[in-house]
Amino acid sequence: MDILRIATAGSVDDGKSTLIGRLLYETNSITKDKIEALESASKRKGLDFLDLSLLTDGLIAEREQGITIDVAHIYFSTPTRKYIIADTPGHVEYTRNMVTGASNAKVSLILVDARQGLVEQTARHLSIAALLRIPKVIICVNKMDLVQYDQAKFEAIKASLTSLVAQTTFEGQAVSFLPISSLFGQNITQAADKMPWYQGNTLLGELEAFEFAESLAHAPARFPVQWVIRPKTEEYHDYRGYAGKISSGTFRVGDVIRALPTGQESTIASIEKFGEPLDHAVAGDSVVITLTTDVDISRGNSLVLASDAQAPQLKDFAAHICWLDHQALSPGKTYLLKHGVNLTKAKISQITERLDVVAQTSSQNVDSLKLNEIGGIQLRTAQPIMADVYAQNPSNGAFILIDEFSNSTVGVGFVK
Amino acid sequence: MTNSTIKDKIGQFPRKLEDESIYIMREVAAQFERPALLFSGGKDSITLVRLAQKAFFPGKIPFPLVHIDTGHNFPETIEFRDWLAKETGAELIVRYVQDSINQGKAKEETGKYASRNVLQTVTLLDTIEEFKFDACIGGARRDEEKARAKERIFSVRDDFGQWDAKRQRPELFDMLNGRIAVGENVRVFPISNWTELDVWNYIKEEKMEIPSIYFSHQRQVIERDGMLWADSEYLNKEADEIPFEATVRFRTVGDMTCTAAVESDAVEIDVIIEEILSAEISERGARIDDKRSEAAMEKRKQQGYF
Ligand SMILES: Nc1nc2c(ncn2[C@@H]2O[C@H](COP(=O)(O)OP(=O)(O)OP(=O)(O)O)[C@@H](O)[C@H]2O)c(=O)[nH]1
Ligand SMILES: [Mg+2]
Question: Over the stretch A281-324, which tens digit does the pLDDT of each residue have?
Fold first, then answer.
């Protein structure tokens, strides 16, 4: 059974939470007691209908203000798939929560209010979806009921977005448009009887039909060591196992590997999962690898195939960055950089550009990046990191920056 | 849902979930000096123990299991706890809510709905302080409850164990930032993305042992608010609440005073999974502690509850 991760996006009040509530409601994924709780919460708010946004807007402050503040994760499954949905906030102030929800998504549902069409958040979220290299974007034109389900209106919005989409998208990303009404359940799981002019898939139909490469088994082999297992018991006296989750590619017993950054080579003696021997393991598998020889390897080191002469060791490199902290990014300051499980110090030597998400242009000569801004930076690290170019191998190309004093996660970067 | 789709979902555990949870277990061991696994005796924490075993095999689980004993646990749960600790060779630490009450730090609730669920937070925070735990692994899942749906996997708590929903750190991809200041600690939720069904399917696929009260048995119960409550010396009964025998099992295991039973003949795990799939009530619907108010869970989390 595979897992498909989805994240919502779009401006505040566009109906993201209502859409997710509706999707769960129509797939019978909400139990009776939860529906009753929604009914009474809706009544308490003075509404005469079932407010499905309350399914994910679970915090007291969210219910008071009628907005989403932080990501909610919610689940449903069909006979073929388990879906993990991140319902994210639309308000620009909470963009970092939106990025949190979107970072693992394979599908981004970007909502647009049919009355308003393209707004700044549409552009920002399309840019973020591109930055994260989310392979599928469904632009859901919501609240079609408020424009009398007018086809011309839908087509006009679609046309107005074409050039923006052309600018943000990348090869391999599929972008589609869908007219919906979350409130009245049009085109969510059932064909829209109010929009006979629309012949395409419903939202659920689109999701069920989406094929994605579940594993990055063919990307270069990367194994970051998380933990060294040394039981030191009678039975496992000399046992030394390297535990970790393969970030990309495939490893096989007998493969000659190289440990980075030391460069020492050895051969894979076994790959194990809870004692069960495997002949190979692929991206996403949490395994233990043992080697034929004793090599000095510790947490934060990586294993790659010895034949892979290109395996990167970056110390001075360029990256895209999305800034997530109230305190602006300032060049010259030292941060902690976390790439996978590896932690090292890093200095931003230069901010090379700032992206204007609406105009899709960038300005140079920038001296800071503020909360929620996207830009380009050049950085230097204390220890080399074994990171790939994000666009080529997303599972090994992203990193976070941590403020040494507040310990907050202040930025997310993507190796250029 | 039709019967054929119900059958389809039995034993369909998405294996990727296990890989992700094992990864989180290892991050905890590597990033913290004194982690602990909060063990309640319920199916979720039993699942955590299995994941921890897998993460470090053939090594031992590198952190203790900590049980906050409310004194109102089902005897079957306690028996199971002791068996599991022995079986896995893990260190077991038990601390008692009764001690917090005796020390005057917690006050027993009164009335017919009295339970020790809220009180255990006091004992938990004291235990964290006593052992200087910097990370506590818990079995909470996001599908359980609407405030839990908002939790990060690494959830930073202040000196008082409090959760601040508005100050949560961004959590990107699978990179977990466990850096904290002195006095702060982190609650870690490795099975955040599992649903109740995933847990049951996992228990089935892994052929895991679980406490007997999850299966159908005879028990003295009373009926209250349309639910069946286990009769025990801890339950404050009213005069007209006469215990009777029923064939029941528990879907979720908390204290005897705040967990409702369901009528069931299910003695096999497949039947339990079928019952869950066709149930009209969610798992938490059987937790009387959640029914206190619309935001009961969020408020308890603000106070340091896990
Ligand atoms: N008429 C109409 N109203 C809708 C529709 N979808 C949502 N709404 C209403 O729009 C308002 C905002 O809906 P939410 O679902 O909370 O919007 P959101 O996008 O989640 O908002 P944030 O998360 O705060 O960014 C609510 O009053 C909904 O009832 C729709 O299809 N038609
Ligand atoms: Mg919302």
Answer: 999 999 999 999 999 999 999 999 999 988 999 999 999 999 99
Rounded Cα gap, residues A334 and A403, in angstroms: 8
Residues with CB under 6 A from ligand 1: A 10, 12-18, 53, 67-68, 89-91, 142-143, 145-146, 181-183
Residue B206 lies in a domain: no
Looking at residue B146, which CATH number applies to its domain?
3.40.50.620
Q: Split chain B (306 residues) into runs of 10 and give each run's mean pLDDT.
A: 53 91 98 96 95 96 96 91 94 94 88 81 93 96 91 90 84 96 94 95 95 94 88 86 93 80 91 84 66 69 69
Q: Residue B265 sits in which domain range?
A: 211-291
CA distances for A324 relative to B156, B173, B181, angstroms: 17, 14, 20
- ipTM for the complex? 0.96
Ligand 1 geometric centre to CA of A140 (Å): 13
Hey, are the CB atoms on B165 and A59 less than 8 Å from each other?
yes
Q: Give me the percent of chain A exceeding a pLDDT of 90.
A: 86
Kindly state whether residues B82 and B228 are assigned to the same domain.
Answer: no
Residue ranges of A 268-287 with Cβ closer than 8 A to chain B: 272-275, 284-286
Architecture in CATH for domain A217-305? Beta Barrel (2.40)
What residues of chain A, 314 to 373, have a C-beta less than 8 Å from chain B? 324, 336, 338-341
For residue B116, is it within any domain?
yes
In this predicted structure, what is the pLDDT of residue A170?
A: 95
Q: Give how many domains chain B has, as a whole number.
A: 2
| Chain B CB contacts of A235 below 8 Å | 58
* Residue to mutate (ligand 1; options A13, A125, A184; most atoms within 8 A of CB): A13
Distance to chain A for B59, nearest Cα, Å = 4
A2-212 is classed in which CATH architecture? 3-Layer(aba) Sandwich (3.40)
The predicted pLDDT at position B7 comes to 60
In chain A, ranges of CATH 2.40.30.10 domains: 217-305, 314-415
Residues B231 and B117 in one domain: no
- Return the pLDDT at A353: 96
Select the residue of A32, A70, A235 nearest B281 (Cβ to Cβ): A32
How high is the mean pLDDT of chain A? 95
B173, B179, B193 member nearest A103 (Cβ): B173
Distance set, CA A228 to CA A287, A306, B188, B259 (Å): 12, 21, 21, 41
| Structure token digits, residue A122 | 């549409």
- Which ranges of B103-195 does DSSP label H, i.e. alpha helix? 120-131
Domain A314-415 sits in CATH at 2.40.30.10
User: What is the token pair recorded at A323?
Assistant: 């800034």
The C-alpha atoms of residue A315 and residue A335 are separated, in whole angstroms, by: 14
Burial of A187 (0-12, 13-18, 19+ CB in 10 A): buried
